[in-house]
């Protein structure tokens, strides 16, 4: 017999999916902000987190004040996630400035592959065949999105390699955030991760970029947009979703970043979108649909 969920239950099940999709779209525009920020890649990574801290603090305080009981602060998974996020941004921003946005985004959003691999190696987490099939569609779709720019170009090799390393850090970050969400709410986890990562990123930016300040209001606007939209919005919504949805599926939805990044690059930076790339985007959507978690719909 089919079960019809009450409207409130349906909304509670829909909310984490919406958070995941909107979060992926918010993170997808970050490469455009990096290109417009007028600072080095590591300085932009620092400002992305630093300028988001006031908003994250306000979210954390509001949530904690309304919580029934305090949860564990700065748990080991949260600190580890902060370190991993700093590594993710280090290689992500390096990749953005040394290869195409499509390439950088594809390699970064290959994180689901590493989530599956490390989830099994470290935690013996198994995934369903539906997730593996969906992952296959998403990888093929992502490859189609970058097919036009994936040609032998030694000038882009450092950026492409940095993108691959980004995906590894991002995959491990997913697993760490999922563990941290078992010990605290999304607001506190996102704020604590940001505090840990901003200290590391400041040291990196000062050492490798030198100057931290953009040259014009346009640069500051790009940094503010990246902080509020891509970090506070994107990472915050991702933390919400990871407390409610399977980590392997959540990582798959981040492939939407590849679609959105290609569209943003086309609209704002003039990087063309071809028919093959459009087919790749459709394959990603199909893969996510195949891998979606199934709820029990029958009763005895």
Describe this structure in words.
With 300 residues, the protein is mainly alpha-helical. The protein has one domain (7-291). Helix content is 75%, strand content 0%. It contains 14 helices and no strands. It has helices at 7-28, 30-36, 41-50, 53-65, 76-98, 101-109, 111-123, 129-145, 157-181, 186-208, 217-242, 247-253, 256-269, 275-291. Helix 8 (129-145) packs antiparallel against helix 14 (275-291). The longest helix has 26 residues, at 217-242. The termini are close together. The model is unreliable at 1-10 and 296-300 (pLDDT under 50).
Number of strand elements = 0
User: Mean pLDDT, rounded to whole units?
Assistant: 80
Main sheet overview: none
Number of domains: 1
Task: Quickly list its features.
mainly alpha, disordered N terminus, 300 residues, globular
Would you summarize the structure shown here?
The chain is an all-alpha fold and 300 residues long. It is 75% helix and 0% strand. The longest helix has 26 residues, at 217-242.
Draw up the topology in text.
Blueprint: H1 7-28, H2 30-36, H3 41-50, H4 53-65, H5 76-98, H6 101-109, H7 111-123, H8 129-145, H9 157-181, H10 186-208, H11 217-242, H12 247-253, H13 256-269, H14 275-291
Helix pairs in contact: 1-11, 1-13, 2-11, 3-5, 3-10, 3-11, 4-10, 5-6, 5-9, 5-10, 6-9, 6-13, 7-9, 7-12, 8-14, 10-11
């Amino acid at each position: 017999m089919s079960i019809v969920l009450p409207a409130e239950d349906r909304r509670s099940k829909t909310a984490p999916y919406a958070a995941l999709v909107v979060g992926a779209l918010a993170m997808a525009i970050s490469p455009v902000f990096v290109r417009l920020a007028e600072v080095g890649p590591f300085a932009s990574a620092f400002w992305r987190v630093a300028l988001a801290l006031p908003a994250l603090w306000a979210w954390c305080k509001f949530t904690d004040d309304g919580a029934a009981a305090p949860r564990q602060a700065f748990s080991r998974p949260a600190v580890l996630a902060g370190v991993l996020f700093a590594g993710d941004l280090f290689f992500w921003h390096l990749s953005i400035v040394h290869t195409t946005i499509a390439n950088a985004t594809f390699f970064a959003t290959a994180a689901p592959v590493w989530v599956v691999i490390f989830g099994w190696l470290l935690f013996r987490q198994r995934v369903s065949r539906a997730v593996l099939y969906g992952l296959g569609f998403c990888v093929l779709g992502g490859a189609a999105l970058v097919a036009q720019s994936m040609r032998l170009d030694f000038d882009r090799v450092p950026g492409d390699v940095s993108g691959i390393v980004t995906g590894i850090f991002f995959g491990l970050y997913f697993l760490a955030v999922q563990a941290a969400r078992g010990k605290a709410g999304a607001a506190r986890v996102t704020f604590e991760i940001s505090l840990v990562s901003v200290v590391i990123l400041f040291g990196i930016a000062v050492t490798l970029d030198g100057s931290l300040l953009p040259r014009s209001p346009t640069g500051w606007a790009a940094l503010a947009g990246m902080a509020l939209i891509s970090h506070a919005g994107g990472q915050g919504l991702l933390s919400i979703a990871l407390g409610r949805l399977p980590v392997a599926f959540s990582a798959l939805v981040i492939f939407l970043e590849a679609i959105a990044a290609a569209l943003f690059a086309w609209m704002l930076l003039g990087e063309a979108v071809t028919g093959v790339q459009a087919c790749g985007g459709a394959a990603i959507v199909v893969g996510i649909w195949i891998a979606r978690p199934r709820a029990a719909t029958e009763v005895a």
